[in-house]
Every structure is written in structure tokens, then in C-alpha cells.
Amino acid sequence: MYQLKISRRQMTGGMLAAGAAGLLAACGNRPGSTSSAGNGATAWVLTGGPEQTFRDSFERWNSAHTDRQIATEWFANDAYKEKIRTAVGAGNAPTLLYNWAGGTLADYVANEQVVDLTETTAAAQERIVPSLLDPGKIDGKVYALPNNNAQPVMLYYSKPAFEAIGAQPPTTWDELLELVPEFTAAGYIPFAEAGSSQWPYLMWIEYLTDRIGGAEPFARIVAGEKDAWSDPAITGALEKIQELVRAGGFGNSYGSVDADSGADIALIHTGKAAMILQGSWVYANFLTDAPDFMSDGNLGYMDFPSVAGGTGDLSNIVGNPANYWSVASNGSQEAQQIAIDYLNEELYNEAYIEALVTGGTIPAALDADDAIAASEHAEYLAYGYDMVKNAGSFTQSWDQALSSAAAQELLTNLSQIFLLQLEPEQFVANMNATL
């Protein structure tokens, strides 16, 4: 969900149950280490999250291809981002280039730092949910393939809170607003929100814009069209956000709540808040932080509500489609071919899918139903998988889809919208200046 350096978010789904705590620690603290796989191709990989899926996959490849090895080096998230930026700029990138697609990938393509995978990875592409391929495309050509789990944003809710006021999960924006005074009167914060982290604010404007005007308004922004932020769907989304703020939807202290520490989800499992709009990765955090709450089946989840008069497809979702592999252009032709063959052979094969599901994550693969059905967390994974598989579109998190400079400006201005320090018209003007 979101480019900022928030460790829980960067877990990209995490491992479920007991494994989650260890991996959360590993994501931030584990030092890099180089394998002894040989001198063929290279891959730099992130620790944490579905790390074991990657390790098993490279081990399978190297065991089966003793003369075409892939050497791996492992990094925590922040250390990787710092090193890869320098390596790509210096022409020393690993053969398999781990990335978040979006604006970063566009820069790689513009500078001819990655190769076109459209034709050469056709076999791998056939195993991937089509909407998850889109973020890896530039001008219709495939330059990156998803390599782990899909991370849609969902609206989670406390079943005990809803039972306390005798309410059902809202299916429309108007129903959502009607619940705000009811929850407030019952002593609940209607929505937990981690305003101190800023990036969780994005989920509201992303979904509201899509529900009002579909995926096209943001697509025009990504394309850099003049005054694209002036789309009525953007203004409508900002107005509804402020409507919710003024109604008391987030309580009074949301600007100081931190997502990295799990303070936002704690408001749910400690009985202080009723709902939270967050990425699928928080399910693992709920399991780790509140096992009793989860074992009693107290956490519900639902689609984002419709908006009256909106034209967006209700199957559209937002979030992190996945993380991605590209193939760097600076390597030898032999190394590039090894990397391409690895993608075609290993990416989302049966063992790869099983490992992702065992880790409690939503695979980006087309054929994962049987593996999910056999999972300990089948109900939740099936719900998220169906969201992804049947999505009319899967809009990438806006801070990842945009350039770093534009993303930071977006977060700054959106924070001011939520704090009622900026009018929608000024937000639009400020963001049009970034195009």
C-alpha cells in the first residue's frame, strides 16, 4: 500500500499467525547477505513479507540449473531502496531488478535501464491476474512482472461495535455517513485513521475518486495531462473527505495516530473504533497484535461503498497490485536470458503459489483457488483474491504511481485537506502545478 518508509506497510501482506511477528522484525533489522549461487545472473531481494517464497524459488532454480545460477543478495526495505538507486544510476543493477512499478519503472524505461519483456515472458504472463500486469506496462509494453502478493485496500470493521448499535456494514456513502453519529453516541470513533503517517489518507481519495468518476481521472493524472487534477471526481472526493471529517468521522486525535506502531488498528481491537480503511497487509498485524480478538472472529471486512451518482465500476479496487521484477539492461545477454527463463519457469508455478498462500498472502496468480481453499485462513484469502481477480481495474497507490516529488506534494496537500487547513480548490491548483 504506499511508498513511504512504513515497515508494516512494506510487509506487503506479511506472514499470518505466529510467523508474522518474526518477519516484522526481520523486515527492518535483517542485514543483507549474499548467496553462493555463482556468477550467472543476480537478484537483490527484500527480507520480510513473502521472503521464504523467494528463497525457496531461487533454491529450486539453482538446484535444477547448476550451470545457470542466480546469485541472491538480501536487504531490508530502506537499505535496498538506497542501494538500488545508486546501483541503477551507475549501471550496476542486479539482473533481476526488484521494484514497485509506477513512477520508478517509468524512469527506468525512459533511461533504457530495463528490457522489454512483452514477448519473452509470455509464458509467465499467462499465469498472472491481468489487472496486476498493468502497473508493469509502459506505453503498452511489459517491463515488469508481479513477483509476490496482491495488496488491495479493504474497509475493515469491528463486529462487536456494529452489534453494539445494531447496524449492518454500509454499502453506500450515505449509509456510511449515517453511522457516524450513531457510533459517536455509543462511545466509538467511527473510523480509525493514522494521520501522523499521512499515507493512509490516500486510501480515501483513491476510492472516492474511483467511485465518483472511475479509474480514468487518475489515469489522466499519471499521463501528465494539463490540469488533470481539475477533474470533478477529484474535487468531489475532497469534498466528501472533509464532509466526513466535519461530521466527526475520525474523532479528534487522528492527526497524531501512527500506522507504523499499529496504533490505528489498535483502536479497532481495543474497542475504541468501529472501522478502518487499510490495506490487506494489516490482517497479519491484527493476528499478531490481537490474537484473542481475531480468534473470536471479531474482524469483518467489506468493499468500499458506492457513491450516489458515481460512474465508477464497483468492482474497481485500489492498493498495491504487488511488487515487481524487471530485468536490467546493463547485464550480459546470457545473464538477461537466465533471468527471463527463471521468470517463465518459476513465477507463480504451483510451488510458488502454495508458498504464498501458506504465508497468508493473496497471490497475484490466476490459478490459486485450490491452494487458497486449503489454507487456514481460506475465508479471508478467498475474499481478497476474488476482489483482485474480478476487479474491473486495480489502481496503484497514488504515491507509487507518481514521481517522488509529486507524491510528496500530494501527501502534504492531502494532509491539509484532512486537517481542514486547505480548501479543495487550492488542493487542485497546487497539484496541477506538479504536472
From TrEMBL:
Keywords: Signal. Residues 1-25 form the signal peptide. It comes from the Bacteria. The keyword Nucleotide-binding does not apply. The keyword Protease does not apply. This is Bacterial extracellular solute-binding protein. It comes from Actinomyces glycerinitolerans.
